[in-house]
Amino acid sequence: MNKLVSVCAALSLSVLLGSTAFASDKKAIELYQEAVKHWRTDANKCESLLQKALAETQPKPKDMNSKAIRANVLLAMGQFYQGKTGDFDNAIKHYRMVLLENVGVNHPKVTNMKAQALLNLGTIYYSVKKDIDEAVVKFKDAHKTYPTAQTADTLSQILFRQARGANITAPSKKKKLETALALAREAIMIDKKNPNKRSTPALRAKYRLQLVICLEALDQKDEAASEWKSVDQGKLGDTALYQLAQLEALRAAKAGEGKGSKAAEKIAALLRKAISEKLRPAARARNQLRWFIRTEADFAPFVKDESWQDLTKDEPEKG
Question: pLDDT of 15-25, one tens digit each?
Answer without folding.
Answer: 454 555 588 88
